[in-house]
């Protein structure tokens, strides 16, 4: 068995496994930006294949997509042109002081900040990057969901799909590391093209709503919205015109926070 990240190393395969033909995530982010009057300059941190950054660009915004994966960035430049794409680490980045009116961080990218130092580095970088009154919009898993709930844990889930004539099968298992406050994921890939199985290990920080409110306040942000849906990955998914909910009980968490103009 080989170890690697089959999806991030193969962006086309990533988009085949996680199709978003209606650009639901990008539309949800644009709705948040529009409702709260964000300016046009947007940083999509953890932009991946560039689909959401390109949608925001198409909505008339000046967008920079940032990611750590060179493969993802190359795919984004070729397949989703319009935004500027740069390599940057969300744990700490400097793309200019007050260079953006909003930072968007979708699909649990924020939760790759596994430690408090990494989370502080991300939020301090956002503070530096945002103009006064700028927005942070994020969508992620909800740590509070896993308090006493085990329905998503320990039992492998299987997904199968075909891409370019090859059948792929992924077996994914989630476990909670309570000491590190991480949701750990092990995903084993197999395919019918004769290649050896590939194992991918990753983890997300389990952040709780009150914890998130506190750390945002420490870094100068005021929370405008914090809720479990509707959103682009909820069931049922967000639809145009739907307003945010008021509770944080389900498995996704949606955040809109504004950088305070004075501390």
Describe the structure.
The chain is α/β, with parallel strands linked by helices and 263 residues long. Helices cover 25% and strands 33% of the residues. The chain has two domains: 11-142 and 207-259, Vaccinia Virus protein VP39 (Rossmann fold, 3-Layer(aba) Sandwich), CATH 3.40.50; 146-204. The chain has a seven-stranded mixed beta sheet, with helices on both faces. The chain has a five-stranded mixed beta sheet with strand order 1-10-9-8-7. Helix 3 crosses helix 4. The longest helix is centred in the middle third of the chain and has 14 residues, at 116-129. The protein is globular, with a radius of gyration of 18 Å. This is Methyltransferase domain-containing protein. Residues 42-134 form the Methyltransferase domain. Pfam families: Methyltransf_25 (PF13649).
Number of helices: 7
Largest sheet: 7 strands, mixed
Question: How would the global form be characterised?
Answer: globular
- Helicity range of the residues? 10-25%
The first-to-last residue Cα distance is 52 Å
Return the average pLDDT rounded to an integer.
95
Structural class: alpha/beta
Total strands: the figure is 12
CATH class of the largest domain: Alpha Beta
- Taken in chain order, the helices and strands follow as EHHHEHEHEEHEEEEEHEE
What is the count of distinct domains?
A: 2
- Biggest sheet: strand arrangement: 4-3-2-5-6-12-11
- CATH architectural name of the largest domain: 3-Layer(aba) Sandwich
The CATH homologous superfamily of the largest domain is termed Vaccinia Virus protein VP39
| Fold-level CATH name of the largest domain | Rossmann fold
Strand content: 25-35%
Q: What radius of gyration results from the CA coordinates?
A: 18 Å
Unreliable stretches (pLDDT < 50, length at least 5) are none
GO molecular function, one term: methyltransferase activity
InterPro entries: Methyltransf_25, SAM-dependent_MTases_sf
Pfam family, one: Methyltransf_25
Domain Methyltransferase: 42-134
